[in-house]
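anyone seen this seq b4? input:
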Amino acid sequence: MKCELKLVVTLAGLTLGAAVNAQQADSLFGDGLWYASVRTAYVGEISSDGQIVGPTESIYGGIPLIEMDDGTRFTFAVGREIFENLRLEFELSYLTSDTSSAWVSGEELRVDDLFRLRADVDSTLAMVNANYDFDQLNWWAKPYLRGGVGVADNDADALLDVEYNSAIWQGTTYEGQVLTDHAFPGHSNSEFAWQFAAGFKKSVSDQFDLRLEYGFLNRGEAWTASDDIDDTVVFSELESQQLTLGLDYKFN
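predicted toks r here
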């Protein structure tokens, strides 16, 4: 965790340092402009299913993967053009997502059991991005590419409901019972994160640009703390696609 935070601080320092040097040495970096940006994104999860791991799964098996619902991401970024067509920026963002609240059938011997996992997986991200603007294209809106690396602080917790209907419970105290609000306590972990996006920006005034982009984000993995029988909910690969709308303010 300390190494990842040190990486972000170093990258952010290089980003802002390059921008300051650009301001102090126009002969090297050109005229470049500072800007601030606010963005909001629709987040569609790709492979972020939750899985319960631990003694219960090892003994009985059949616990299904629980799908993540779509989420939302809010971002604030500050950057500067340091070379022609090239911008560096530092961004902070918050992404919130949760699992579907639908009941899901078990698998194998537990096909008649029903599961409902109500989990929240929220991420705070600090990223350093490089943006390349295709200003040489005389289009109505200017295309650009953006890539970035950084750290995601992922926080996960969950509640589990189970209806015990499978044949393996016949004659036991579990048969016909319902487990409600079984808690997996919250847990936070820091992960390496990376992203890539392509989009268009359009100047609407001397100081404002609108942007629309499609991108991909990988924020590592997340897991809850263990419950009272050492089971844990694991989200092994938090990958998502994003559709982002943003507004840039240029400090002319």
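The longest helix spans residues 2-24. Residues 1-9, 18-30 have pLDDT under 50 and may be disordered. kinda curious what u guys think
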